[in-house]
What does this fold into?
Amino acid sequence: METNGVNNGSEKARHGLSFEFFPPRQPEGEKLFWNTLETLLPYRPDFVSITCGAGGSRQSGSGELVRHVQERTGLHTVAHLTCVGASRADLTEMLRFYQGCGIPSILALRGDSPRDDPAALERGAFRHAEPFVAFIREYFPEFRLGIAAYPEGHPETPDKALDELHFRRKVEAGADFAVTQFFFENEVYDRFVASCRDKGVHVPIFPGIMPVTDFKQIKRLSELCGSVLPEWLTSRYEAIRDDPEAMLRTGVEIAVAQCRDLLLRGAPGLHFFTLNQSLAVPKILEALAGEFYAG
Ligand SMILES: Cc1cc2nc3c(=O)[nH]c(=O)nc-3n(C[C@H](O)[C@H](O)[C@H](O)COP(=O)(O)OP(=O)(O)OC[C@H]3O[C@@H](n4cnc5c(N)ncnc54)[C@H](O)[C@@H]3O)c2cc1C
It folds into this structure.
């Protein structure tokens, strides 16, 4: 992965491109996962990332999947790894596993306590991602390290400025790049990046893009992640919420406009939350094809 977000493998420098997947739980989901990955391969992502049990659940399933994806596709595969509830020994074991299978990058996260184990955060070796990043940097210096960023502020934070300070500390602890939570107002991303740059943060901050093709699902996710659904977006979906085709069309149209604007504003690349679905992202990338290459 090029940390400056530019893929030098093409004739013209290209903006960074990455896709995020989650480990499927059911056999049908597995088929969908691999089909989606195959569909997206021709777009030559700089990396694909695999989440680990969102909500703090067990990570073992994602470990095997990460290994499998890298072996089967040869893609630069980024393993998400949460430290919530985990001891240093647990985390060392996972990191050794990834080291042993040649996984080059880790997205180091705190994660959240699972609903059925609200005290998990208190039990783990690290209360925040920052010391976890420092730990990986010290004991596994060969990994490229990514971290999460929240242009709208992390949902738990009482103060956006404080949250940004915590983000900067994670970078100082040794992160090489960051990926943001999804958002729909590009000014928010711009302000966050500008403020970080002013304070000496120079790692690439890849905007996370969430195509809204199922409004109910994204509304639920937004509530969990603290991403704001602006009024203009909500009202566009009101009339079409029972029409999947119209939602797909609208989701693609909105994402294309957002991505185009982000690239014009100087975003180093685009990180798509695929939700293991193959319909929207190829359409978005086809629409952007002409603009995806930096001059
Ligand atoms: C791109 C992306 C990918 C993700 N992938 C996954 C995944 O695979 N699996 C999963 O379970 N979750 C994932 N998440 C969600 C993430 O785990 C949650 O948002 C979690 O609540 C915070 O993780 P973090 O690493 O950002 O934590 P932190 O950086 O530790 O921040 C968490 C909160 O603690 C505060 N904080 C940080 N340091 C301090 C300090 N020293 N003192 C006081 N407060 C502090 C921050 O301001 C923030 O409010 C992802 C999020 C993003 C944006």
Q: What stands out?
A: The pocket of flavin-adenine dinucleotide is lined by residues 51-52, 54-56, 80, 82, 109-112, 128-130, 148, 154, 156-157, 163, 166, 170, 179, 181, 208 (CB under 6 Å).
